[in-house]
Amino acid sequence: MSGRFLTFEGPEGAGKTTQIARLAETLPGALLTTREPGGTKGGEAVRSALLNPDAAWTPLAEALLMNAARDAHVQEVILPALRAGTSVLCDRYADSTDAYQGGGGGLDQDIVDALRRWVCPVEPDLVLVFDIDVKTGLERAAARGAADRFEAKGLSYHEKVRARFLRIAQRDNAVLIDASGSPEAVQNRILSAVSDRLPDLLAAS
Ligand code: Z5A
Fold first, then answer.
1. How confident is the model over 42-54, as a mean pLDDT?
2. Which atom of ligand 1 is nearest to the CA of 186?
3. pTM of the model
4. Which of 100, 134, 99, 92 lies closest to 6 in space, CA to CA?
5. Which atom of ligand 1 lies nearest, measured to the CA of 36?
């Protein structure tokens, strides 16, 4: 596998989507940007079901659905791209299941870990974990329109999600990105982290 795999993680409204677009414009070489849940036709259908504010899913059902979508995404999109030498910038991946269903929803860690072993044959080269004060993130997301099912969960749920992301950021393949301040300031922090951890990606042609 020769492409690099970068994932963007963090709480709601942290600015991941904005920053993926900016990084994709900056990086040389073959690149694919994608997202979870989603990234395939089936995955996007699962996404609609999961975000529907009228639906009620338990944390276990959420984790199963997220991983059903992820399996298709990994097999149909991520692995073929990496094998072809294309780097992948992915808006959320398995660490979101850990943070939301595990941290926020209280799902047993053994289940989260087992699903990851079954569904994820590839782990990211770099996980950019965005960190933002929960209220600020939710305000940013709310400014865009009606709340989806995850945005509508309470403040304490989102605080637990953030706490789990802070733990994930301590892993060797992860780096914590302060997502406060202007989009330009956040972009500079990301470029600095990528240049530090994956200098070959910035040099690729
Ligand atoms: N989920 C899960 O539970 N388990 C899983 O395994 C996976 C996902 C894979 C996906 O919804 C939901 O699925 C997600 C977790 C769950 N829900 N939550 N919570 P989504 O894709 O709609 O949610 P999201 O990933 O959090 O996306 P988001 O709300 O769009 O946030 P974002 O991508 O981090 O932020 P953004 O779209 O770039 O920016 C949000 C707004 O803030 C927008 O108006 C921007 O213009 C603005 N913005 C961006 N940067 C800044 C700065 N620096 N300053 C001020 N304003 C800014």
1. 95
2. 53
3. 0.97
4. 92
5. 9
